[in-house]
């Protein structure tokens, strides 16, 4: 007997494989975008925390300066 490929089954398999590849590609793309957004969000949070830390440090220095001015005025 001769092996005759059945085109319908082969085409259907290719369609399913293509559809599966498309789904996997879409999921990979979405995951990459989410990872990028989370990375940028983390970077933004780090910068915000650094800004708050610097603001606290500035406030402490201003208080020290005010205290020194008071001491100078009292002497």
Automatic annotation (TrEMBL):
Keywords: Coiled coil, Membrane, Transmembrane, Transmembrane helix
Membrane-traversing stretches: 20-38
Coiled-coil region list: 46-75
Top-rank lineage group of the source organism: Bacteria
Name the record gives this protein: Uncharacterized protein
